[in-house]
Specification:
Layout: H1 2-5, H2 8-29, E1 34-36, E2 42-44, H3 45-61, E3 66-69, H4 74-83, E4 86-94, H5 96-100, E5 107-114, E6 117-125, E7 130-135, E8 139-142, E9 145-146, E10 159-163, H6 169-177, E11 183-185, H7 190-198, E12 204-211, H8 212-224, E13 228-230, E14 244-250, H9 253-264
Parallel strand pairs: 3-4, 10-11, 10-12
Antiparallel strand pairs: 1-2, 4-5, 5-6, 6-7, 7-8, 8-9, 12-14, 13-14
Helix pairs in contact: 2-3, 7-8
């Protein structure tokens, strides 16, 4: 734990500085040009500037640690992942579509992956000035104070985050009509959904296919806060090196068991 705690203050400060000096000025001035990537997602000048800033600063701090960022090419991402060892996994601006509308709901996300697992994580919300951190075995924190998932264990009265558009049509229809839970939300930013689950602000996450930069930091923070995290097969998303995974994350093992069984029976 102490070994990874050394990253907390300097790395958290980098995310906060990126938010203050790159993301928020562009958001206030609506000054970021956007383009559409091959996969249909949105990228802006701010994403690229923020990623370059973080990559340069992290390299200066730890030249021995590799870097995997959302805005790199897939071949470069896959190469970094296949090499294993230690690497930073970064989403410089999660919630880019929100950012461009402009809907004030986005964050930066960063994890240190070591031997195939996240060991340090940080998610920073520049609008609310909330910084979520976790180290493997060391707990989860919001602005330096410990956080824990909600003790809620009843799916019927739970409120969770579901990204319907990345689910199979039959699965999405079932979740929308079967009334398994009280209500659902989709924030448009995976990072904040993970962080808010960890902070007790929701009870579950269901996502058909998050990228590794979407779940690497958030899954560690949520697990250290007490969350149960698997894919739709009931296996941890970091059981193998992969660029994407389905996600079920819950505040309680009872909710997780019910959701997993329901999804597997569709």
């Amino acid at each position: 734990m102490a070994r990874y705690q050394m990253f907390s203050d300097p790395v958290s400060s980098l995310l906060k500085k990126a938010g203050e000096t790159i993301i928020m000025p562009a958001f206030r001035e609506h000054a970021s040009t956007r383009t559409i990537k091959k996969d249909g997602s949105v990228v802006t000048e701010t994403d690229l500037k923020c990623q370059q800033f973080l990559q340069d600063k992290l390299l200066a701090l730890h030249p021995d640690i590799a870097f995997l960022g959302e805005e790199m090419g897939q071949e470069e991402q896959s190469e970094c992942l296949s090499h294993g060892g230690r690497f930073w996994c970064v989403d410089p601006l999660d919630g880019t579509s929100n950012f461009t509308i402009p809907l004030p709901h986005f964050a930066s996300s960063l994890a240190l992956i070591e031997d195939g697992r996240p060991v340090f994580a940080c998610i920073h919300d520049p609008l609310l000035d909330e910084t979520f951190t976790a180290t493997s075995g060391g707990g989860a924190f919001l602005n330096g104070k410990p956080i824990h998932v909600s003790p809620h264990s009843l799916l019927a009265s739970a409120v969770g985050f579901i990204d319907f558009k990345r689910l199979e049509q039959e699965t999405a229809a079932m979740l929308a009509t079967k009334k398994l839970f009280r209500s659902q939300r989709n924030l448009g930013t995976c990072a904040l959904e993970w962080a808010w689950l960890a902070a007790g602000r929701a009870h579950f996450i269901i996502h058909g296919g998050e990228k590794i930069w979407d779940y690497s930091a958030g899954s560690l923070i949520a697990e250290e806060a007490g969350s149960v995290v698997t894919d739709f097969n009931g296996i941890h998303p970091f059981h193998i090196n992969q660029l994407s995974s389905s996600i079920i994350a819950t505040t309680h093992k009872k909710i997780h068991a019910q959701l997993l069984a329901t999804l597997q029976n569709v």
